[in-house]
Amino acid sequence: MTLTEKFFVECVKMGIKGETVSSIPNELDYKKLYNLCKAHSMSVVVFNALYGVKEKVLPSFLDALLKIVRRHVKKDVQKDHDVNELLSAFEENGLRYMPLKGYYLRKLYPSTDMRYSADFDILIDLKELKKVREVAYKLGLKTERHDEHHDIVYNPETKTVFELHKTIFVGELEKYFGGGEKGFEKAKLKEGYNYFYEMDKETFYISVLAHSAYHFALDAGVGIRHLTDIYLYQKAYALDKEYLNAELEKCGLIKFNEEFEKLANYFFEDEKPTDFTKKLAKHVLESTLLANEEKQMASLVVSNAKGEEGEKKAKKRSFLRAIFPIKEHMQFSYPVLKKHGYLLPIFYVIRWFHVLFTRPRNVGKLKKMQNVSTLEIEYIKEIRNGLGIQDL
After folding, report:
1. Residue 114 — pLDDT band, cuts 50, 70, 90?
2. Is residue 71, in this structure, part of any structural domain at all?
3. What pLDDT is stored for residue 242 in this prediction?
4. Which of 57, 207, 345, 346 is the most buried (most CB within 10 A)?
């Protein structure tokens, strides 16, 4: 890590513990520090960590950071109102719902505005989708996008975005979190409510970890906030480690958890790192919340490779999988295919037109996939294998 990266990590460490740093390095690269804060969504955390020595901080940097902080604080207050309004509407209308990730995680930080996120995730019952949409529209929410995994809606006045998940996960992780109920079978009713579901502490932790693993596999990396979430959650709750590890084995995340724990302890507890932990630390800091497109395309190629087959075949398979998703994914997007499978070719054409006109950027990504370097593919393989997520 560079001096500025080390200082950024130190600020994050102190900020999430409600403490401040004691000094400012002389050779600090303020531009790079600002970019790290912004890219990792850690502006409020770092600002709070610097508060005790703010007189020693470059004024222009502090002013720029303060602008982001004020915006995040304002959005945090507004989001609380919007979220409570939607959850209350679901409860009043008899619709099953389960808040995910941020609803609980933000409360673990010294202040909720420290965990800024662009959206709010809620699991809904797919069988109640029509009524869920009716309730959302009555509240004045507008549609950003409907896809096979979630409805994305937003408040046009406050810009609060909701991801209404139809399933917690897809692929391998969906098998662990539930098939028919898409996640509700891993939860129970919250005391005092009729439709509010929540997971036990260990299962929720696994869902948070699985979310990080899923994004790491899909986007070839995650930012430091995924680590602060995991670290603070483990600090807040006495988890049943024996049960937790047994469940992590079942869903294939035991190695991922071990390596992320090592990285969190390296960053936030100053524990001595292994060689792989150092490499992972560099990767996470460079990844930010989402890795660059070349790494993403390399990860896609690696995830679609079979055994030790060559790079050319893996790229071809990845391309074809993007053009022709597996039958189960198509059935999720177009439920009519569950009863009328013979219509699959027609719905492939429908999907192509939909992507072409609504998500043209994805077409450009397919072209970039063919140009991913061998070196990048081998690097991603090493990282994925080290985390035990080669099959995600």
Report:
1. very high
2. no
3. 96
4. 207
The mean per-residue pLDDT over the stretch 152-167 comes to 92
Total count of domains within the chain: 4
Whole-Å CA distances, 134 to 93, 98, 137, 138, 141:
10, 18, 5, 6, 10
Q: What is the pLDDT of residues 205-220, one digit of tens each?
A: 999 999 999 888 877 7
In a domain, 69, yes or no: no
Question: Nearest to residue 176, comparing CAs of 163, 165, 185?
Answer: 185
CA dihedral 145, 149, 151, 157 (to 10 degrees): -70
Residue 191: partners with Cβ closer than 8 Å, 6 or more residues away: none
pTM confidence score: 0.83
User: Alpha-carbon distance 274 to 110, whole Å?
Assistant: 30
The DSSP symbol for 120 reads E
User: Can you read off the two tokens belonging to residue 309?
Assistant: 């087959």
Length in residues, the chain:
392
CA torsion sign for 102, 108, 112, 115 is negative
Q: Are residues 313 and 220 in the same domain?
A: no
Q: Give the domain range for residue 7.
A: 1-57
**CA 107, CA 125: separation in Å to the nearest integer?**
25
> Chain-wide mean pLDDT for the chain?
86
Does residue 151 share a domain with residue 42?
A: no
CATH number at residue 117: 3.30.460.40
CA-closest candidate to residue 141, choices 126, 156, 119: 156
Least confident range from 51-60, 92-101, 177-186: namely 177-186
